[in-house]
Amino acid sequence: MLKSLLKTTLSVLLLFVSAATFAAENQDKKATQPEKTSSYQPLIERYILDELKAVRQDQQTLRAEMEEKVAHARLDASDRAIRYTSDTLNNMFIIITTAASILVLMGWRSMRDVRSKLNEVVETKINELTSEYEDRLHELEGKLRKRSQEIIDAQEDISRSNEVHSIWMRAGLESNLHQKIKLYDEIMAIKPEDIEALIYKADAAFELGDYEWAFSLSNQAIEQDADYGLAYWQRACANAANGATQEAINDIKIAITKAPKLVDELEREAAFEDLHKLEEFEALKPKA
Predict the structure, then answer these.
(1) What pLDDT tens digit does each residue of the chain (288 aa) get?
(2) Are 259 and 232 in contact (CB under 8 A)?
(3) Residue 220, class by beta-carbon neighbours within 10 Å (0-12 exposed, 13-18 middle, 19+ buried)?
(4) Nearest of 183, 250, 192 to residue 223 by alpha carbon
(5) Which residues have a Cβ under 8 Å from the Cβ of 163 and sit 6 or more positions away?
(6) InterPro entries under this entry (predicted)?
(7) Comparing C-alpha atoms, which of 185, 198, 182, 190 is closest to residue 160?
């Protein structure tokens, strides 16, 4: 159809060209012979108009055929979709029927069997869930018990810390050395590992003039913590008071090694007054 339309269009174009050529020749003849006229011009015009009309009719026919083909294509697509849906539903029904048949063959031949099996499955699942939640509850209970114990221990630690702090405040305000020693004993009764209270007790014993007791308390502190420099310092004071000069200098060296800031206290420590004449002691002082 399209090929015939192209041929018709080419024919019309050729006719237009021929008509234009013929008209040009007639105009030339009219220019030379003005008295003569052509009798073929109305026929040519009529022929051209008929051809144009035929072309338009062919175009309308082609458009109608194209619309008809598109409509048929859409109808075919709809038919295929409906057929696919129908086939799918049929397959589903077949599968369901087959599954039901298999269940019947396997022994579920009545609603009673189905109900019994369902009850068994539900009971088993409930037992599993119950056991799982019981385990979770036991675990949660254990965590809560542990957390409660931690909270209680923390509260006890806070209470002990507050009580110890209160006793330290009282000891700081107390001027009687014997009362101070009693307060330090109270602190160690609450916190036996409080080495600082032990050192302060040794210092109070030293101030009372009981150098052997101060020496013994210093040894106890060193046994608890061998890296505590102030314990060696306190023992050096006791050794210096007892006349053990070399032992005192050795303890001072260890104390300065463990706690370098103690070197600034060498000049101010009254217990080391007799050691200032020794060169070994003077060598320990910071150089200006």
Answers:
(1) 555 555 556 665 666 556 556 555 555 555 444 444 456 677 777 777 778 778 888 888 888 888 888 877 777 777 777 777 777 777 776 787 776 666 656 655 566 666 777 778 878 888 888 888 788 888 888 888 888 888 887 887 787 778 888 888 888 788 888 888 898 888 888 888 888 888 888 888 888 888 899 899 889 988 988 888 888 999 999 988 888 888 988 988 888 888 888 888 888 888 888 888 888 888 877 765
(2) no
(3) middle
(4) 192
(5) 190
(6) TPR-like_helical_dom_sf
(7) 190
